[in-house]
Every structure is written in structure tokens, then in C-alpha cells.
Design a protein that fits this description.
This protein has 93 residues and is mainly alpha-helical. The protein is 62% helix and 0% strand. The protein has one domain.
Length: 93
């Protein structure tokens, strides 16, 4: 996240969670802890607190998220989350 985006981010994140509440609940039910996909060791991010921020970034700044992610984290984690969330734009290869 760029420094200029920090101001008001809490409110934007709250609005994102409110707007996508049903979708977030479905994501947790289908892929979160205790689900069949999670039992196979996939979708490790789902159910983690930071997932809300990652999903918000995936929806609002997907290219920036992927570019930063590829430098620091295992890309399969983002690919799995992206698949489960089903964003409008697929960035994975």
C-alpha cells in the first residue's frame, strides 16, 4: 500500500467488509478451516486475519498486490485465495 493510501484505510476496509459480507461468509464456509479444500492443505490464508486486507487489495489494486506479493511470498498462496474469491480479473498465470 502506498503511504498516501493509509489515510482513511480503516474506514475503507470496514466498508469493503460490509459490502462483501455475504461473499466473505461463503468464502469461509467453502474454503476456510474445516472445509474439504482446507483439509487437503490448500487455501491456507483463508480464515487468517490478514485475509480481509489481501482481498480488499485484490479487488482495488490487483496488479500492485501481485507485483509486491511475488517479491515476498509464495505465489501459490495468492493464487489459491484468488481462485476461491473469484475476482473479476484473474492475474495468475
Amino acid at each position: 500500500m502506498r503511504p498516501e493510501e493509509h489515510v482513511g484505510y480503516t474506514e475503507r476496509l470496514e466498508a469493503f467488509a460490509k459490502e462483501h459480507r455475504v461473499r466473505l461468509e461463503e468464502l469461509l464456509r467453502a474454503y476456510g478451516p474445516g472445509s474439504r479444500p482446507a483439509a487437503h492443505g490448500r487455501y491456507a490464508l483463508i480464515g487468517q486475519p490478514e485475509t480481509l486486507v489481501i482481498l480488499e487489495r485484490m479487488e482495488t489494486h490487483p496488479f500492485a498486490l501481485r507485483g509486491r506479493w511475488e517479491k515476498e511470498e509464495e505465489i501459490v498462496l495468492l493464487d489459491d485465495l484468488e481462485f476461491a474469491w473469484g475476482p473479476r480479473l484473474r492475474l495468475s498465470r
